[in-house]
Fold this protein.
Amino acid sequence: MTSILALKDALVTIYYRKKDLRQFIELTIENTTIISTIDWTENTKYESVSQLIDRMVKRQDIYQNDLLKLVQEVGNMNDFSHLDYWDKENKGLIKNAKAAVAKLRQQAKGYFETIDELKKTEERRESTKEKLNDSIAYQQKLDELKMQFYEIASNTNSQQKGFQFEKFLNKLFNFFDLDPKSAFKVVGEQIDGAFTFDNSDYLLEAKWQEKPIIAADLYTFGGKIQGKLKNTLGLFVSLGPYSTECTETGSPVLKSMILMDGMDLMQVLEGRIPLNDMILIKRRHASQTGEIYYRMK
């Protein structure tokens, strides 16, 4: 690499005595132990510098930052008055030092670009690895939730199944960071749960029953929503189907809710669409068309 050769040449010329050069290097780099592995007495100045830099280049996992510091510090040198004494006897020392440093500056630009690209490549690699790990963890959690869902489905006790379903939905909504609240009671009514999404508060109604949901079920839920703050919305989740009267009604009592069914839930559990994206699409469709039930494609 031409920038490494330029660094060697510059180091050799910026100091006349080896002990001064060694001191400069010791004050510049952090991992100074490597300096003591070089024979600064018997070697020529160039031999010492060449051995040092070559060893650092071979272990850039340790010395990359130190190499960069040397390139930066040498490249930034513009005062060579410390060579005045020896330049009187050996004409050209300062001239050679200036030329070598100038060459290093020119070559270092490409070196820094290469190092920068290597760092960016490593950052991209780490980012990809992190995303992959997150994706694996995400899918594993979804698989766990899906298995819990199947366990609930196999329960023959209808009352237990209903309570288990409520707890399951709380876990599901928590997984998607929807700030869920468990079932609670207020005077005269039971609320299956609540959550917050996109700066809106939602009440949750959950039904696991074989027979279709009828409009009366929705009206009961609509009454609960209307009893809360004006902008409160509702999400009605039924594992079974909705009757035609539920999906075709134009009653304003039901215009503050959206509907999900078992097929919607399976799309979420199978990883085809995140829960929050589904809620957003359903709410947007309801806002634009007035239809509270939207069949996800």
Residues 184-189 have pLDDT under 50 and may be disordered. The first helix runs from residue 2 to 14. The radius of gyration is 36 Å. The CA atoms of residues 152 and 164 lie 7 Å apart.
